Amino acid sequence: xxxxxxxxxxxxxxxxxxxxxxxxxxxxxxxxxxxxxxxxxxxxxxxxxxxxxxxxxxxxxxxxxxxxxxxxxxxxxxxxxxxxxxxxxxxxxxxxxxxxxxxxxxxxxxxxxxxxxxxxxxxxxxxxxxxxxxxxxxxxxxxxxxxxxxxxxxxxxxxxxxxxxxxxxxxxxxxxxxxxxxxxxxxxxxxxxxxxxxxxxxxxxxxxxxxxxxxxxxxxxxxxxxxxxxxxxxxxxxxxxxxxxxxxxxxxxxxxxxxxxxxxxxxxxxxxxxxxxxxxxxxxxxxxxxxxxxxxx
Length: 297
Hints:
Helices cover 7% and strands 43% of the residues. By secondary structure, the chain is mainly β. The relative contact order is 0.17.
């Protein structure tokens, strides 16, 4: 099972890895589900469920951690998360929508995993290590330092009244969506286009997986597999109304590696990848998840 590997990497790595394991063979999917995505009126609220499950939008595995969830208002300011609670199978929280426009509710994280050699032994970097603390975590005299950066982003969008676009301004870190079609303006039978950036730049070849909810009650997964084009864009034609889970991921890439897939200098019994070493280091890992509501035309 994938869970054992996730535990070894700690909470941050677990979150990144679980989001990036998309496809029919990988059952555990992390998601946030809003009670509504389009509202009208004043003094509105939205409730969000957050979990990791085999069947999308059904609580049966374990809750998503929501400690670092933030709500960004249409004017770009942060809005308070209220009534947060974590139970056995899901977490839940409320957001008070006091402005007109589009809100972003997001959980994003970055981290570093890796290893180094010290006094002839291979050592692992501490779990849950941030990029800012990387230098301090490597002791004097260490050699053969190998690191891998991980980033994850799980976000949803809720609009009160007319949609706005300020919350889509990229941060330049990890995979981010810059919608051509607004995510709260989706209709079945119509095409929607989204652009995905990696560290602020359009990224070609990202794997995009789209799965409609309700898989617990049907035989076919209904999965749509796409790849971003040279501009980082994909176009989805929604087959029917409902809630959809979208996952965009890259991982296990080794910049500069040869056709064998081994990182330069990874050979040797005591080095990373060797029988006595810490195991092969993955390359950059990044993932993005969103939940989208598609309406009937």
